[in-house]
Amino acid sequence: MSAAQHPMVVQAQNKVFYYHDQLDKELTKYPVLTNFEQRTQIPKTYAVLGGGLLIIILHMFNPLAAPVSNLVGWALPAYLSFKAIESPQTQDDVQWLTYWVVFGFFNFLESFALRVVLYYVPWYFAFKTVFIVWLQLPVFRGALVTYQTVLKPVLANISNTTVAKHTETSAPAAAPSSD
Fold first, then answer.
1. Statement: the pTM of the whole predicted model exceeds 0.85
2. Cα 91 from Cα 51, distance rounded (Å)
């Protein structure tokens, strides 16, 4: 019996083929990947897994981690935002507008605390990239979840405080009574 015919090897091969087929079915939902596969003759599963592996490898080299993370956060969302603007549906517009609000707020906060965060979290950009992908994927609705649970309450609180201060300062003083 050769090593390739060993029951454990056969079982492992069957699992790999099963997960490959499942990933292929899932990726077929995205016309961009199907179109890429037809044009390049590279299976979309290999392209996605290879792209993910490339991102992981680039993150292992820390000087490239920040630019790669920013590229992941900007390139695909910019393209899909363009497509959303051109489409007649409004649901995709909401998805990407929400993404950009959350992404912008996150980058704004990051600009204040990046050095401290990098000191305490050595793989910060890897975590940031995973977070950004979670925000982007419509399956998880990460941008909407983050907006609803974090940003909306904060912005509503700021808005209410500003309106209350504005109302107090602009309210006309009561005229003295002439009894």
1. no
2. 28
